[in-house]
Amino acid sequence: MKVASSAKWVEAVMSDFSSFLQDHASCEKKASAMAISLVSKYPDRPKIIQPLIETAIEELEHFRDVVLWMEKLGVSLAHDMQPDPYVNQLIALVRKGRDEGLIDRLCLGSIIECRGAERFRLVEEALEEPEIKRFYKVLWASEAKHGNIFVELALEYFEDDIVYRRLQELIDAEGDILNKLEFRAALH
Ligand SMILES: [Fe+2]
Ligand SMILES: [Fe+2]
Is residue 103 a contact partner of residue 158, using CB atoms and an 8 Å limit? Predict the structure, then answer.
């Protein structure tokens, strides 16, 4: 990542942790749907299918676990927060061609996962209650693993230099997008 998340973002999250949990739940649900949508778009790329299904299942497990925490803490599930300016601006960078589109979606998947890992780690550090701290620790480790999987899937079908060059461009763009976001009690 080009840009590290600001301490002001952590402050915004900790000042309204219930809203953060609502948004977090929605992000896990969308991450699962996003992995499955890639399977739907690229059924002709067999090497990505099983890993993406596995990832979708893990994201759905994260969704279940966040909802369990919300129930424990008396926080209700909310309608998906629309729009997510961060994700929308990233998706707008996906190029038109079929191969280019796949490279971009996989690189963005990796970047979004890595950002999630970074931010869940910050949340883990800011929390005090040991059980929920442990939950966020398990989560950030899982998102970091997903970050690697998406790049590996791109490398299954495309040359290293093509993947890494595009990944770097998108990492730079993500940094610029992140720098312009307002701080909310939300994952992005
Ligand atoms: Fe997740
Ligand atoms: Fe993930």
Answer: yes
